[in-house]
Amino acid sequence: MRQTHVFRPFRRAFLVFFALATPALAHPHVLVTARSAVMIDAGGKLTGIRHSWTFDEAYSAFATTGMKRGSDGKIQKKELEDLSKLNVESLKEFGYFTSLKQGKLKHEFDDPQPGYYLEDEGKALTLHFILPLKTPVAPVNGMALRVDDESLFVAFSFAEKSPVTIEGTATKCTVDLKRPKKSADSGDMTKLGEDFFNNMSAGFADQYATTVRLVCP
């Protein structure tokens, strides 16, 4: 597994608000609704993944406590700059919760490009960032994208509308998305208790992960 389930420091930033305020929260601790775009350049190479992650209302409210809101009730992008920087930098320790594999070959990502930002949508915060591949590759049939936290501390689920798209016209690839039979935010996992997640067996989180594969001619 990529990491054990503990209040570690991505919990230092991205989750620090919950770690300090409510250490006895039910599992999972933060819910994220994801939208992702597979980025294809003019030469037909896969260059990276564009992420938009919307955090649950409880996390969003706590993270923005004390921040100044405009006449529309929203926090301006500039006010959220420090928080977005803290979040993105902390994600590195966890591989940005993103993997791209071609069989057993795992393609490596570079750090997010400048221009990432948090957006206040009223009741929830959305983090927008681009995760570039270190080496662009030709997209191939069966290439698998996964966005998840294997400890299930953070529960990722893809949006119902336009969850994963192809960005760029220099490819005929499409996306095959299979949602899990179990939902991490259904409340069922609260019955398992924190001890279970501290000693969780490998592969358990697979039941809650969405499978995304490229279908290329």
Structure write-up:
The chain has 217 residues and is an alpha+beta fold. The chain has one domain: Acetylcholine Binding Protein, Chain: A (Distorted Sandwich). It is 14% helix and 32% strand. It contains 4 helices and 11 strands; from the N terminus they run H-E-E-H-H-E-E-E-E-E-E-E-E-H-E. The two termini are 33 Å apart. The model is unreliable at 1-26 (pLDDT under 50).
What's this, in brief?
With 217 residues, this protein is α+β, with helices and mostly antiparallel strands.
The number of helical runs is 4
CATH architecture, by name, is Distorted Sandwich
Oligomerization state of this entry?
single chain
Order of helices and strands: HEEHHEEEEEEEEHE
User: How many E strands?
Assistant: 11
Q: Could you give the distance between the termini? A: 33 Å
- In CATH terms, what is the fold-level topology? Acetylcholine Binding Protein, Chain: A
Strand content: 25-35%
User: Which class of secondary structure composition applies to the elements?
Assistant: alpha+beta
Low-pLDDT stretches are 1-26
- Our count of domains comes out at 1
